[in-house]
Amino acid sequence: SVSAYPEKHPQSPDVAADVDMLKRKVDAGATRALTQFFFENDDYERYLSACVRQFELHYSGDVQMKLRRID
């Protein structure tokens, strides 16, 4: 499992950079991402939408995403 940050990692310039980082983790072999706690559901929904644009995304529940690389 790798970490994911729906409300932006404190050291990240923006959410797009976090999504790019998650893509690199998937490209390196990650198959599951666990999010940090988040306080705004809208932030989570925006993060999921950004991930859907980058990946073939399957998720279950509110905080677990199963990722699969698209070749």
Summary, kept brief:
With 71 residues, the protein is of the alpha+beta class.
Describe this structure in words.
There is one protein chain. The relative contact order is 0.24. The model has no long low-confidence stretch (mean pLDDT 81). With 71 residues, the protein is of the alpha+beta class. The radius of gyration is 11 Å and the shape is globular. A hairpin with a 3-residue loop joins strand 3 (56-60) and strand 4. The longest helix has 14 residues, at 41-54. The chain has helices spanning 15-27, 41-54; strands spanning 2-4, 32-35, 56-60, 64-68. The protein starts with a strand and ends with a strand. It has a four-stranded mixed β-sheet, covered by helices on one side.
Distance between the termini: 21 Å
Low-confidence stretches: none
Which word captures the global form? globular
Q: What's the total helix number? A: 2
Q: Radius of gyration over alpha carbons?
A: 11 Å
Helix content: 25-40%
Largest sheet: 4 strands, mixed
Which class of secondary structure composition applies to the elements? Answer: alpha+beta
Task: Output the helix-strand order.
Answer: EHEHEE
Beta strand %: 15-25%
Number of separate strands: 4
**How are the strands of the largest sheet arranged?**
1-2-4-3
Mean pLDDT over all positions: 81
